[in-house]
Amino acid sequence: MRLLTRLSEQHSLRLAPDNRVVVVLALSLILITRSLSSFSQLAALQAVLLLGMASIGVRVIWLVSRSLLVFPFTLAALPLIFTVPGETIFHLGSFTASQQGLARWLVVVIHCWLCYQALLACVMIAGPFGFIDGLAGLGLPKRLVSILRLALRYLDILLDEATRMRRARSLRGGPDKRPLLQRASTTGAMIGTLFLRSLDRADRVQTARACRGGPLAFQAEKLILGAKLQIAVITVITGLVLFYAGS
Fold first, then answer.
1. Are residue 177 and residue 134 in the same domain, yes or no?
2. Does residue 211 share a domain with residue 159?
3. How far apart are CA 106 and CA 80, in angstroms?
4. Does residue 149 sit in the same domain as residue 164?
5. Across-strand partners of 91?
6. Is 149 in contact with 4 (CB distance < 8 Å)?
7. According to the model, what pLDDT value does residue 133 have?
């Protein structure tokens, strides 16, 4: 479980809150982020988030570097630059880029950046399976909880098979110096083989799981008074922020 191990080893926390509190905190941070549209407010939220994560032992550099993964997905909102009317910045053929469209796109990028940071930080606090258990403790259906837990385990199987195939290919042929199109063709064939091998291993995992008795029912412990107070405080703060942001 290399991926799960890396996620679990990225922090040395000084406190271990209830997993349900962590889930509520993640959802609250996402709601607060989506309610803000000013760049100064978003910058202040980023500073508060990084300081808070650093104070409880989360590795900020690792958190920020992994958050860069969201940028390719924000390209889907790039047409906002040309579709939102406003002051003209430049022309690209028959399309006109506006200053307001650029600002709207940047807000979308920052929202995705901060929401992913908040979610990843909370997963690091609770652990990958602890976060799913927190969702289960808040009433997520047991079948969906089982699917999410299996998806995490199968993701590690996929990465493990990819590492084995890449190592075997390097040992057989060394550095690949062929043209880009030929390398892309080989990579596509390797991806197909990777999924077939991963499905085979996943089938063996599923068989072993069935032999052990199938899915284990999650039993959520009763929320203690401290956890209830933490959830109440988080909910009140989130409500106040959303109220003032909307007014």
1. no
2. yes
3. 10
4. yes
5. 96
6. no
7. 83
User: Which residues of the chain, if any, have pLDDT below 70?
Assistant: 1-16, 173-178, 180, 182-184, 186, 214-221, 247
**Number of helices (H) and strands (E), helices first, in the chain?**
11, 2
Statement to judge: residues 214 and 224 lie in one domain: no
One domain for residues 104 and 155:
no
Domain that holds residue 175: 141-218
Q: What is the pLDDT of residue 2?
A: 52
Q: What whole-number distance in Å separates Cα of residue 14 and Cα of residue 12?
A: 7
Q: Are residues 213 and 244 in the same domain?
A: no
Kindly report the number of other CB atoms within 10 A of residue 125's CB atom: 23
Q: CB-hemisphere CA count at 13 Å for 42?
A: 20
* Among 55, 155, 73, 112, CA closest to 47: 55
Closest CA to 134 of 6, 21, 1: 21
CA distance 6 to 16: 18
Tokens for 40?
């100064």
Please list the residues that pair with 11 across neighbouring strands: 58
158 and 129 part of one domain: no
Q: Is residue 136 within 8 Å of residue 142, measured between CB atoms?
A: yes
